[in-house]
Write a structure and sequence with these properties.
Structural class: mainly alpha
Radius of gyration: 24 Å
Transmembrane segments: 34-63, 75-100, 131-156
Shape: elongated
Organism: Flavobacterium cellulosilyticum
Distance between the termini: 51 Å
Keywords: Membrane, Transmembrane, Transmembrane helix
Strand content: under 5%
Protein name: DUF5362 domain-containing protein
Order of helices and strands: HHHH
Amino acid sequence: MENSLEPSEESLIDNFELQLNESAKGFLKETAKWAYFLSILGFIGVGLMVVLAVFAGTIFGVIGHMMPGMGMFGSGIGIVISIFYLLIAALYFFPVYYLYKFASNAKKAFLNIDSELLSTSFKYLKSHYKFIGIMMISIMCLYGLIIVFAVIAAIAR
């Protein structure tokens, strides 16, 4: 594979060092605070999903007994909903975790004036956005498949 950069351009990029001015540092500190807040809310959301998943079987079992027409369907759907919520919680955990690690490492980096820790925080921010991007591509593909199958089902009707 041929490299498109000239040798002199490569050495410029390798030797490039970025300095943050005070306003950029302030923006980054504020971003870390908001990311920390959002990650805590995300962990609370994941926890609520897990609690809901644990109790969904019981809730739908009770509903199934209260409505005799549902029969065993009430408790069976509870298990399906429990598994679904556990999967969603597991999927949602990772971007929240990466956001938390970005925020906590960035806050520590500014507190200790540690550029290596700041680099680590950016690694987690990259992982957060990479995960979200891959998840969005997957969801868009799923929507595309749903649309294709809906059109095929409508034509076959």
